[in-house]
Amino acid sequence: MAGAVVGYLVARTRTRREEARPPGPTVAELLDRLVRSSHNGVVVLNKFGDMVLHNPRAYELGLVKVNQADVRARKAAEQVVETDEPMEIDLSPLEARGRQPEAVLGQVRPLGDGFTVVEAVDHSEAIRLEAVRRDFVANVSHELKTPVGAIALLTEAVLDAAEDVEEVRRFGGKILRESTRLGQLVTELIALSRLQGAERLPDLNVVEVDAVVREALGRTTLSAESADIGITTDAASGLLIEGDRTLLVTALSNLLENAVAYSPAGSPVSISRRLADGMVEIAVTDRGIGIPEDEQTRVFERFYRADKARSRATGGTGLGLAIVKHVAANHGGSVGLWSRPGTGSTFTLRIPAHVRTDPAPEPAWTAGKQTSPAPRQEKTPERTRLVVTGQDSPDHGGNL
Length: 400
Description:
It is a single chain. This protein has helices at residues 2-20, 27-37, 56-60, 71-83, 124-160, 165-198, 209-226, 245-261, 308-314, 320-330, and strands at residues 41-45, 51-54, 64-65, 68-69, 87-90, 104-112, 115-122, 205-208, 230-233, 240-243, 268-276, 279-286, 334-340, 344-352, 387-388. It contains ten helices and 15 strands. A six-stranded mixed sheet has the order 9-11-12-14-13-15, covered by helices on one side. β6 (104-112) and β7 (115-122) form a beta hairpin. It is of the alpha+beta class. Helix content is 43%, strand content 20%.
């Protein structure tokens, strides 16, 4: 009888406790969720260096391998237990493999009773951006130093030949060219800075592709005529895109100037337009020197030049294609490249097409002539990856 009474009282007490417990997870459960969902790698070690708790991110950052904490973390934990002072350690991978983090910084803190916590943070992106910043500053300094130094030397030459009219005229022309190059470099640096987020981008409007092509051709006509290069285009397309007309004209002009600069005299350059999978493609094709396969992934980098000697001769800054890439990206598009040394190159600017709200049928078009409207649009194969090599030139309305 007594046993039954005791059992009843215990059960009643337990029931009351369960009823008194608030609904939802406990504090311990919430802390466990917090640790496991953290973007940083977290490992708790006891005084023997064994893991008591860790989260999935610790595996991703290499803090935990084969169910054991990194040796560097364990040694640091021993030191923290002895000194009772937190410390920072480098937990970056000793060998670079694949796409794993490159720079991991860890902090070890004491928890008392011989326990320590190791928190690892991935600083790979910050390290990469800092390296890009240093390279950019170094490149800008070098690029600015060249024309500034040339102007200084030419000015001294003008002063020394002040009484010789012909020499003054000759050196004056060189000063003008170098100052023009310097002004162009500064202008493109400002444009690139704006495209990379230094300023708010302008609002996007409906833009006629044919108008962009006409204006870009107008900007390039003089340099093309000077190089004895003819630029041909396909028929008007009537295509519309959403974007900033000034930026789009600048991007297409840069592609045309690039094609002219790297093409031999008398060779053709062509422009073609088409609609493919909801994207308007504007392709610029040349029969120039082409770009080796190992350099094709770098041509859109700032200050990179495939042919440095030719670029100096034509006054190029090395920023034109970088601007094209950022203009395309800021419009939700991309720029693709096909190239083969000795054959030529095709740069393709892809921008999302404007969706018409009127029921008027869209015109169909081909590489060289306008045709009557078709009942449906023929789907074309995708071919505008960033770099395509080792295959025949894509037929985009312009002949290599």
